[in-house]
Amino acid sequence: MLGVFITIEGVEGSGKSTQLFRLSERLRQIGLPLLVSKEPGGTALGRELRRLLLEPHASGDAWCPDAELLLFYADRAQHLERVIRPALAEGMIVLVDRFEDSTRAYQGASGVPETALDRLSELVLKGLRPHLTILLDVDPELSLQRVEVRNLSMGPEFSETRFDKAELDFHRRVRKRFLAIAQSNPNRVALIPARDAVDDVEAAIWGRVAPLLRNAGFGVD
Ligand code: TMP
């Protein structure tokens, strides 16, 4: 792998989108070779899966946990094969909004056992790991309020995802899992408090990204 692989993670409303936008703008202004993507939905077929996974189905039916898990990994397999691995092989900086830690946090919080997660991970990732994961940490009680305000202000087409409706307890379990991942992977995961002002969060993220890029040989001040 020649490029640099960075993922950004966090509970709903943690400010991921804002920070991803700011970081990608900064990298573009410097003129670095950048690819920005997301999961689920980083490919044309993946966008179909995203819709199937996140939008309520007209039939009222919902995915059972195993089916949901496999669909998230199907999306990831396609994304890795078609987008992430080729971009890394070309030496690009690949910035992805959510990756495997989200599966471990969300599907783990839904009751999927670690062994199933480990097996799929081995099959699909084949040892590939992000060089850096930015974990934006915030209490879901606060972040879900942000999501609610955002949805109200954006109108019906930005209706909540099914996960937004899940109970606060679920999101607390998700946060706990993210924190456990950060604790077990201290070299990969940068835990950044997301309650702070947007500019401060941006500076903290840059404090982790800049040295990584410098070490990888990219011209960054
Ligand atoms: P997003 O718009 O923040 O990316 O929302 C995607 C939703 O999908 C979010 O609720 C988290 C959820 N998700 C999982 O449950 N498992 C996964 O593996 C991924 C990538 C996302």
Explained architecture:
- This protein is an alpha/beta fold.
- It has one domain (4-215): P-loop containing nucleotide triphosphate hydrolases (Rossmann fold).
- The protein has nine helices and five strands, in the order βαβααβααβαααβα.
- It has helices at residues 16-30, 44-54, 65-89, 100-109, 114-125, 140-154, 162-165, 168-184, 198-215; strands at residues 4-10, 34-38, 93-97, 132-137, 189-193.
- A five-stranded parallel β-sheet has the order 2-3-1-4-5, with helices on both faces.
- Helix 1 crosses helix 9, helix 3 (65-89) runs parallel beside helix 5 and helix 4 (100-109) crosses helix 8.
- It is globular.
- The two termini are 24 Å apart.
- Thymidine-5'-phosphate is lined by residues 12, 38-40, 54, 72, 97-98, 102-103, 106-107, 161, 163.
Q: End-to-end span in angstroms? A: 24 Å
Structural class computed from helices and strand pairing: alpha/beta
Quaternary status: single chain
Can you tell me the CATH superfamily? P-loop containing nucleotide triphosphate hydrolases
Q: What sequence of helices (H) and strands (E) makes up the elements?
A: EHEHHEHHEHHHEH
CATH fold description: Rossmann fold
The CATH architecture name reads 3-Layer(aba) Sandwich
* Number of H- or I-type helical stretches: 9
Mean pLDDT rating: 92
The proportion of residues forming helix, as a percent range, comes to: 55-70%
Q: Give the total of beta strands.
A: 5
How large is the radius of gyration? 17 Å
Strand order of the largest sheet: 2-3-1-4-5
Ligands bound here? thymidine-5'-phosphate
What is the 3D shape? globular
Strand content: 5-15%
Q: Main sheet, how many strands, which sense, barrel?
A: 5 strands, parallel
* Low-pLDDT segments: none
| CATH class category name | Alpha Beta
The count of domains is: 1
